[in-house]
Amino acid sequence: MSETHHGAEDGLIDTIILDVDGTLVDSVYQHVAAWQSAFHDVGLQVPAAEVHRAVGLGADRIVSHLAGDSAEWAVGDEVRKAHDAHFTDLLPHVRELPGVSPLLEWLAQRHTLVVATSGGAEMTESLLAMVEARSVIREVVAGSEVAHTKPAPDLIDTAMQRVGSTNALVLGDSVWDAHSAAASGVPCIGLCCGGTDEAVLRGAGAGWVFHDPQDLLNQRAHSPLGR
Predict the structure, then answer these.
(1) Which of 203, 207, 135, 178 is nearest to 22 (CA)?
(2) pLDDT tens digits, one per residue of 155-170
């Protein structure tokens, strides 16, 4: 069971908990291609749209989520290894999303910034190396550091504990980010730049939704960050 934290309405936010894929870097569709290729490598066919909706789940969950428990038992590790190889090949095509570094620099003047991602530590650092303002992120919590990845609250709870936060807010692009935030009792801002539309993000629990980091920066007065 998660701890219950206070949300943005109860006081000043001290920490922003950031997702990476689709939030800071434009990598969601590379993940879709990599997972689809990895499933193909073991003789499984999974539609791209289903893979896209699953991006943001931990790699420990995604095989059974998309192909069933029998696939996880039989080839789960093989699929994950193949995904990582395919995704590494696509890394040169990944870029920082519009407005990310100015947004992070502005946020860091007021908040502690912590990354909490279901991804692995090594790949996460490769992606963060693409972010010009990487130095303002204080801590990184990767999926391997917790018992349960998103949509469980573990990543967010661990990120808050790591920096002594009492009042955090999650910034993410997937329904899994919003579900994880809700499970931890913290509010969530959703971004559509990972390919999930506003209605779906709001339905998953995001209290505010913006197009991308640049849009959030431009409209920060209309978010809890501008108060």
Answers:
(1) 178
(2) 999 999 999 999 999 9
Dist. CA 26–CA 20, nearest whole Å: 9
Q: Residue 65: which domain range?
A: 28-93
pLDDT at 113 over 80: yes
Residue 126 sits in the same domain as residue 192: yes
Q: What is the pLDDT of residues 11-49, one digit of tens each?
A: 689 999 999 999 999 999 999 999 999 999 999 999 999
Kindly state whether residues 159 and 118 are assigned to the same domain: yes
- Tell me, yes or no, whether 200 lies in a domain: yes
Task: Supply the CATH number for residue 50's domain.
Answer: 1.10.150
Q: The domain that contains 222 carries what CATH number?
A: 3.40.50.1000
Of the candidates 174, 139, 173, 175, the residue with the CA atom closest to the CA atom of residue 159: 139
Whether pLDDT at 7 is above 90:
no
Nearest to 20 by CA among 112, 113, 93: 113
Strand positions, DSSP E, 43-177: 112-116, 139-141, 168-172
